[in-house]
């Protein structure tokens, strides 16, 4: 019985994207297709051939079988299929559904004041999970609830600033927030 390997993946507009191929074999032939059109092809003892459908170019790794697409555009959103020899009988090909997303927005920090705490929330507009991190300057008394939510003691110095960082793929953004805004 053939198992179909199908994975949904995403890349960010303007970045380079490498498909996460995991094949533990010595490959002798590789064909990549985008919506059934060939984009790249390689056979043992020869150079890789790239087709015009890979507009901004790409790079094929004949050791791993993975394809890197340079400078992603919206129209790189497609279904990509890797066919390779020797094939794994269970997985004659690997299918990746690539979605190209706009980069996340600049993060925004909002502040709510509860009884004895300031609750800072960092948010950014993006359709997939982001990694959040914070820089608190010289503030030492804080609790982190989730990655994007932080509790500070209300007695904190209002002149302090905090910074929220967001990261996804190769894109990172940050924004600074003055705690004085909590007390306005």
Automatic annotation (TrEMBL):
Keywords: Glycoprotein, Membrane, Signal. InterPro entries: CD2/SLAM_rcpt, Ig-like_dom_sf, Ig-like_fold. It is found in: Membrane. GO terms for molecular function: signaling receptor binding. One of its GO terms (cellular component) is cell surface. This is LFA3 protein. The keyword RNA-binding does not apply. It comes from Nothocercus nigrocapillus. Signal peptide: none annotated.
């Amino acid at each position: 019985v053939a198992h179909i390997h199908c994975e949904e993946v995403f890349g960010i507009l303007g970045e380079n994207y490498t498909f996460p191929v995991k094949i533990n074999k010595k490959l002798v032939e590789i064909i990549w297709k985008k919506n059934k059109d060939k984009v790249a092809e390689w056979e043992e003892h020869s150079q890789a051939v790239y087709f015009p459908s890979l507009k901004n170019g790409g790079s094929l790794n004949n050791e791993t079988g993975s394809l890197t697409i340079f400078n992603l555009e919206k129209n790189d959103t497609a279904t990509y299929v890797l066919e390779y020899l020797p094939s794994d009988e269970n997985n004659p090909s690997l299918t990746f559904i690539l979605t190209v997303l706009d980069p996340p927005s600049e993060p925004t920090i909002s502040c709510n004041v509860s009884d004895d705490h300031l609750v800072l929330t960092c948010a950014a507009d993006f359709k997939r999970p982001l990694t959040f991190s914070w820089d608190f300057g010289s503030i030492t008394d804080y609790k982190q609830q989730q990655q994007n939510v932080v509790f500070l003691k209300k007695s904190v110095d209002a002149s302090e600033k905090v910074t929220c960082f967001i990261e996804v793929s190769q894109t990172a953004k940050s924004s600074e927030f003055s705690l004085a805004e909590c007390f306005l």
